[in-house]
Amino acid sequence: MENTEGDDAALREEAEKRRYTADLIERGEAVPEGTELPPGATHQTTTDEQGRTVVIRKRFSAG
To answer: Is residue 62 part of a domain?
Structure first.
């Protein structure tokens, strides 16, 4: 029997990661790697070996 429950959980987790990254970018809280962080930005984005967008926290926001 196939493990569809585990597969479903993995798919949901990946979708949540993509949504979180998209939300950070949309709100201006993440900018591409190598870009100076503007006020309000807390993360930079980069691409991993598999071509996925990865966010890296660079600082915290008190606002």
So the answer is: no
Q: pLDDT tens digits, the chain, 63 residues: what are they?
A: 566 778 899 999 999 999 999 999 999 999 999 999 999 999 999 999 999 999 999 999 876
* pTM assigned to the model: 0.79
Is residue 63 domain-resident?
no
The count of domains in the chain is 1
Evaluate whether 32 touches 44 at the Cβ level (below 8 Å). yes
Domain span at residue 44 reads: 4-57
